[in-house]
Design a protein that fits this description.
The chain is of the alpha+beta class. The protein has helices at about 80-90, 110-120; strands at about 5-10, 15-20, 35-40, 45-50, 55-65, 95, 100-105, 125.
Amino acid sequence: MSKQSLELMKEAFTIHSFDPSEQIPEQVYSAPVFFIAKTYDELSIVCPDSIKLNSNESESGWAALEVLGPLGFSMTGILSNISGILAQEKISIFAISTFDTDYILIKQEFIENAINSLQQHGYNIISGQ
């Protein structure tokens, strides 16, 4: 199977944690890109660092690599292969999947090492616009 291309997104992201009963802050919806997940235990929002939210906890300074797709549901091992390469380099990730593709968030201080490692394993990395 050929290796996918990944695009380094131009935004830096913050991962926020809220109580599940809280409303989603309105300013999230004005962001050019955002991710929302809600479970019985928490509400998580990932949005650009420029969007300031009053969350219970937050972790800023994440870069994002988008696996260029769309990726069919029958495709297997994509996220596993990428995360395995990064795990060998001791690089922690925060993974997000959408209907069409996957996003791998990596702390900004590790993104250069992550890109180099992925390129050494045959992945094509494109810089975001």
